Amino acid sequence: MATIRLANITKKFGADSVAVNDMSLTIEDGSFTTLLGPSGCGKTTLLRMIAGLETPSSGTISIGATDVYSSDTGAFVPPGKRELGLVFQSYALWPHMTVLQNIAFGLQTRRLPRKSVQDKVEAIAKAMQIGDYLHRFPSELSGGQQQRVAIARVLVTEPKVILLDEPLSNLDAALRMDMRAELKRLHNEMASTIIYVTHDQIEALTMSTDIALINRGVLQQLAAPMDLYRYPINTFAADFIGSPRINLIKGKVEGSGGSLHVRAGDLTVPLDVALATKVGEDVSIGLRAEDFQVSASDGVGLSPVTVYSVLPTGPEWYLRVVSGGQQMTVRVEADLGLSPDDTVWIGPLEGRVKCFDSEGRLVTG
Amino acid sequence: MMAVFIAALSYVVLVPLLIMLHETFIVHPLERFQVPGSVPGDYTMSHWQRIFVSENSYAFLYKPLLNTLLISISLAVASLSIGGLLAWLVVRTNLPFKKFISNIAIVPYIMPSWTLALAWIVLFKNPRLGGTQGVFQYMTGIAPPDWFSYGLVPITICLALHYFPFGFMLIGAALKNIDSQLEESAELLGARRGLVLRKIVFPLVLPAIFSTFLLTFAKGLGTFGTPAFLGGPVREYVLSTILYANLVGQRPGMGYLIALVLIIFGALVLYMNQKFIGARRSFVTISGKGARERMVDLGVWKYVIGGALVLFLVMVTVVPFTALAIDTVMLRPGIYNLQNFTLHYWIGEPSNTIGLGTGQWGILRNPAILDALWNSLRLGVVVALICGVLGMLIGYTVVRTRGTFMSKLLDQMSFAPYLIPSIAFGSICLVLFAVQRGPIPSLYGTFALLVIACVAMYLPYASRAGIGAMMQIGPELEEAAIMGGAGWFRRIGKIVLPLQKSAFFSALILPFISAMRELSLIVLLVSPGNQLATSITIGYTERGWYPYTNGVVVLIVVTVLTATILSQRIFKTDLAKGIGG
Question: Nearest-CA distance from A328 to chain B in Å?
Answer without folding.
Answer: 39
